[in-house]
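Project standup — Tuesday

K.O.: blocked on the structure for the chain from last sprint. Re-posting the sequence here as requested.
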Amino acid sequence: MNILIDSAVAMPDVQSSVDVRHIAIERVGVRGVRHPMLIAAAGETQPTVANWEMTVALPASEKGTHMSRFVALLEQYRRQAMTPVLFCDMAQAMLPLLNAEKGDISASFAYFINKIAPVSGVASLMDYEVTWTAKAQVAQDAEQAAPGSVEFELSVQVPVTSLCPCSKAISDYGAHNQRSHVTVSAMFDDPAHVDLDGLIKSVEKQASCELWGLLKRTDEKYVTERAYENPKFVEDLVRDVAGQLKQMAGVQRFRVVAENFESIHNHSAYAVVEG
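H.V.: unblocked you, prediction finished:
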């Protein structure tokens, strides 16, 4: 028994050894980690599975980082309902765990909102692709506030309907329409300002019409006519969404991407606005 104990104590910690090449690594860690995640949203806890990427900066003198500690951190936070604030706290907690000066955590996950059909009132879930990213660094001096040492970025892909204004104007009847993806990436000065549901609803309101998971015939009539009455070019989509983001509290900078999957072409229409 003593031999086994002595052997375990003597096991070398290779990654903690000194590296003689003296080349710093900007980001090293794990990616493609599928792990459960709880999201605190709309007054309830929503379970999901996220695809995680966790990295830290490695000084030139260190040979390697401690990869297992990233997964240990995931386990530590797995049963807590995650908010943008807690997500940033997690990124900050990663730094001393990995003996790092700075590091990033990114989680991509499916997010669901319960939506009510516009006429029939039937309820159904609508899914959205969301990515949270927190970039943390050690405070440069003792007076620097902790929230200032973490940047939070939110990215969400919102599917909507767009109807072509040109098609409507030149046609005796009908107009071509298509499903579109509007992707918003926004950097917030304070993660407490993030309102994911509010952001999604704001994007949907700028489209020709929003989407629902379940519609009855009366609802189909509504969405068809709503889109026809509210035609939008891809240029209109990105400009209108950008206008909303400029008025949104806490948004430091943003990028809006719209892609219309054209119904009369074998290509997409595409536009980007940054602010």
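K.O.: great, moving the ticket to review. The two ends are 65 Å apart (CA to CA). The CA atoms of residues 187 and 253 lie 5 Å apart.
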